[in-house]
Structures are given as structure tokens and as C-alpha cells.
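On clarity, I found the account of how folds are encoded harder to follow than it need be. For illustration, here is how one protein appears when written out as sequence plus C-alpha cells:

:::
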Amino acid sequence: MASGLVLIDKPKGWTSHDVVAKMRGIAGTRRVGHAGTLDPMATGLLLLGVNAGTKLLTFLVGATKTYEATIRLGASTITDDAEGEVTSTADGSQVDALTLEKIESALNVLRGEIMQVPSSVSAIKVDGERAYARVRGGDEVKLAARPVTVSRFEITSPLRLVSVGDSLLIDFDAIIDCSSGTYIRALARDLGRELSVGGHLTALRRTRIGTYKIEDAQQLDGLSSTSLSITSMFDAVKESFEMRELSDQEVIDLRHGKRISAIDCVGKEIAGVKGQRLIAMLEKADSQLKSTVVFVEDSHD
């Protein structure tokens, strides 16, 4: 089986690990991993590495991402999304008084470089245990704020008044461009807090990771070893990284752990290639390039 990346459109209800397990069966290899976990309720782009492609995932997890989200104002939940128990609801008059202008004003606080407290049910480890596991075990978890960048947070639909039980709520759709590590659930939570009505996420779809787009993803349903499309190692990096064409001697040097010249290289992370083959991922160190990963000779097969 070839090495490279597989772009999957993750269905709702599947964990990212479920997708990895399914892909292991389809690809016929245990060497499958993923970059950028999606919650079970979320859908959209999941990057999978197959065989030597798993070694590329380390370089992709920090890429910027785009999400399409539906946010509900007027109620808070323990998980900051629709799957968690409602912990508080706003008075109907408060929700009814919300306008597009007020919401836009509150969104300004959540755009740009901000400090964000991750959701308490995130996968972040606290004393060696996942935060979500501690919360489900009855513990109160307080996570430290961390810097993230929200370069775009745009409302893309009219505001919709909805009734849930005795509560009056507002739904709207949004598109978000953000740095790696940004929690969209936390954005919904913090928007509701800024407006003093509470808020949570009801739907989430990831449409982009770096240069990879949902339009190029494959559906899991009906996917087989014969229909599976694997993006080659070379194609996987050519749009995302600076490329450095290597000489025969440089290929030999890299395979022996030696450094090579960084002449004409601008970025810090660079893909070293020979023709249509990915030889190594390189890191700039002063005037030289050192390898962070060297791929075995058959990794392009």
C-alpha cells in the first residue's frame, strides 16, 4: 500500500479514532494516524497519514483551519455544545433584545489575537488525565488560558429565533478562520458570556486545514481499498511547504545524518525533494539545513 495522506470527510457520530480504525482496514495497514481531532458531533475534514505519511502529520497539526459553525445564544451547557446538559438559560426578554449589531459588537472581542480558556471537556491533559474524563468523573476542571488567533469570525446567516421547551433562543451560522488549538465551542461559550445570555455550539464542520480543503475529501461510506485515493508524499507537501531540490550528494548526506546548505531557503520548515520524491523534512539552522525526518527510499511507493 502506498504512503501519503488521505483526506476524509468525517461523518457525524464518529470519533477521529473510529475513522483511523476504519482506514486501517481499508488500507490494510496498522500505520494510520490523524492530525487535528474532531469531536463526534462535528463533521468535515480529517487528515489521515498512511504508512510513511504518518510522519508528515507532525508538520500539519499546527496549520490554520476554517470551520462552519452554528451557534446558539440564550443557554449554556456543561460541554459548551449541544451534547451537554444545559446549566443555565437566559430570560426570554434578554434574548429577544439581542440584535445583529449587539452580537457583532461582542464578536469584536473574540477576533484577532486573544487569550482563550479551552472547554473543560477538551482532550487537554490535567495531571495525566484528559480534562473531559475528569469532568465526567465529577471533578471541576479549570484550564489555563492560552493564546490563539481568530482571523475571521463572520456571521453568515440571518438570526433565527427558536423555542426549546420554555426557553427562547437565537441561532445563527458563522464561518471562522483560526489558528491551531482554537476551540470553537469556547468561542460560542465566550460570545454568550460577553452578551450575558450564555451560548453554546450546536453544529460544527471543518472545511480547511492549511492548504487542504473539504472539496478534495473522500466519503467513508462505500470506500474500499480499490477506490481509496492516497495523496502521494510529494503532492502532500508541495502546496504546504517551501521546496528544496536536492542533489544526489545531498540525498546521501541527509541519509547519513549530515547537514546541507540552506542557500536560497527562506522558511524554517522545508521539504527536501529529489524530482517527484520527498526525501526529508528539513529545518533551517543558521546557514544550514538539518533533517527532522528522513523518509525511507520506498516511502513514495
Observations:
- The chain is about 20% helix and 40% strand.
- The two ends are 8 Å apart (CA to CA).
- The chain has a mean pLDDT of 90.
